[in-house]
Amino acid sequence: MTSSCPTQFPPSSTLPAAASVPRVLSIAGTDPTGGAGTAADLKSITAAGGYGMSVVTALVAQNTHGVRDLHVPPAEFLAAQLRAVSDDVTLDAVKTGMLGTTEFIATVVAWLDDVRPAILVVDPVMIATSGDRLLQPEAEQAMVAFCRRATVVTPNIDELAVLTGSPRATTEDEALEQAARWSEETGVAVVVKTGHLDTLTVTNTWLSPDGSRIAVPSTRVDTTSTHGTGCSLSSALATRLGRGDSPADALAWATDWLHESITHGAALRVGSGHGPVDHGHRARRLQAAASSAPWIMPDAVPHLLETPADLGAPQAGDHGRNVTVPAPAVAPPGPWTAALWAAGAEITAAIADSDFVRALVDGSLPQHAFAFYLAQDALYLNGYARALAALAARSTDPDAQVYWSQAATGALTEEAELHRGWLGSADHTGAPPAPSPVTAAYTTFLLATALGEDRAVGVAAVLPCFWLYAQVGAALPAVPAGHPYSAWLDTYRDPGFVTATEQALAQLESEMAAASPAVRAAAARAFLTACRHELEFFDQALRLEPGGGAALLATETDRPELAGSAR
Ligand SMILES: Nc1ncnc2c1ncn2[C@@H]1O[C@H](COP(=O)(O)OP(=O)(O)OP(=O)(O)O)[C@@H](O)[C@H]1O
Ligand SMILES: Cc1ncc(COP(=O)(O)O)c(N)n1
């Protein structure tokens, strides 16, 4: 049935405004394997924090290898779907993907003439990664004209060539130049994507008609799981713009989220061709990070530790599965520290595998996450220094007194160097950084343990910071010239740090040997708890949204870059 029903309900504009969840409509074709088209759009809109809606243009029998068949319903049915949505729902953003034919483009144009959403993101889908046509050749010029209505268009390199009537760009500069000319002529912003160029860095650049540019670089992921990347980027972008983000924040969020989704796409094992990206990876990672499950279960450590063997096989962490114990970069000097290393194996392995360490090493860690990490590190070092000084005050052995007070001084010197160097160039006009919940929990735990528990327990609590940091440092590969974090990674390689770790290990070994079985058990718990704090400390920077957390819908005047959109 394609006849239109009379409007029976008030559109939702007459209902109370829908707070901070933007209502985003995707108009696109289908992919039954869920990687591209409507499925990718809805997953991306959800991941970006929106409420997704879907109007289907064409039913596409495709998989990760290519398109097998197409079924295109009558244009009246497309019009009916569009009206069914807009008669009822106020739209904060619309994204278009596969439109297929001149007739369908005209149908969407007629609907837009009526509806005029504030944000229209046009992904001018023409040819799939597989080489199959998703837009009839005779509809190309209609698509080119349609792009003039957009707030922003997101063509790939080949689509940009059709859009601008130019030969396919072979360099990023050429693509930017083509886009700049078209944008100036049409008054429409363009996101230039270099995914299809042979570059080590994939850069998404928002080009405004006035010539201004916002470039968001990311490292290229060596993967075949790139089916639907264009659909996903444009849907996430539409959602973040619909939510009120500036173009810079919206593009940074979408690029960063998509990079994580592409990185983890292959692990989904969906199909044997060009696989999909993992749209849900970020949500699952954040959900896991928000778990309130206890870190150390009551039976993880016996109440009395008579011998190192009582600590048993690796069992720390959430799952208690069998874990291979990684070789320690700084060797334990005796059986107690060896048993602690084995007990913490799951957490040590999780740090080595963490998205944060991987991104720091491959250079894909977003700048905002790195800056946050450094600021929290400086705050942490101050708290850590106080815990080390407390251990100095509580030591009676002269060597231990010297060692802990020097370690405290070392932490304060590092903090001062961070402020002088890495943090020195930061903007000093704003409020000074405040400790995050993770940093505050870790430093409070260290201070309380160093001051309030037996000394051996305090020593066990401060050890993971030395030992696990040295472990990460030893595993670092050489990084290529131009790596954004190479100078920072060099700080992990400081041989002085290995010596300090060896000394801290020797302190703990002798404290454990001399302690009562009950104190040893408390020390083992403190060690495992601190290992887990280390994992949280590394991971926390990737839980921060670029552009901050405010999720308020902005008015158009808040975003002059978008003025003139919603044609
Ligand atoms: N190998 C990769 N590594 C990192 N990011 C990538 C990679 N491939 C694609 N991207 C990201 O996906 C975005 C869109 O990719 P691309 O330029 O291939 O667009 P597209 O051809 O429109 O996508 P589609 O394959 O869905 O048609 C890029 O701008 C980039 O952010
Ligand atoms: C319905 C639909 N829309 C868009 C694409 C493009 O995605 P890709 O180029 O990654 O195949 C697709 N394959 N199917």
TrEMBL record:
It is an enzyme of class 2 (transferase). Keywords: Kinase, Thiamine biosynthesis, Transferase. The keyword RNA-binding does not apply. It catalyses: 4-amino-5-hydroxymethyl-2-methylpyrimidine + ATP = 4-amino-2-methyl-5-(phosphooxymethyl)pyrimidine + ADP + H(+); 4-amino-2-methyl-5-(phosphooxymethyl)pyrimidine + ATP = 4-amino-2-methyl-5-(diphosphooxymethyl)pyrimidine + ADP. Its EC number is 2.7.1.49, 2.7.4.7. GO terms for molecular function: hydroxymethylpyrimidine kinase activity; phosphomethylpyrimidine kinase activity. Residues 31-278 form the Pyridoxamine kinase/Phosphomethylpyrimidine kinase domain. Pfam families: Phos_pyr_kin, TENA_THI-4. Residues 355-543 form the Thiaminase-2/PQQC domain. CDD domains: HMPP_kinase (cd01169), TenA_C-like (cd19365). Catalyzes the phosphorylation of hydroxymethylpyrimidine phosphate (HMP-P) to HMP-PP, and of HMP to HMP-P. NCBIfam families: HMP-P_kinase, PRK14713.1. This is Bifunctional hydroxymethylpyrimidine kinase/phosphomethylpyrimidine kinase. It comes from Citricoccus nitrophenolicus.
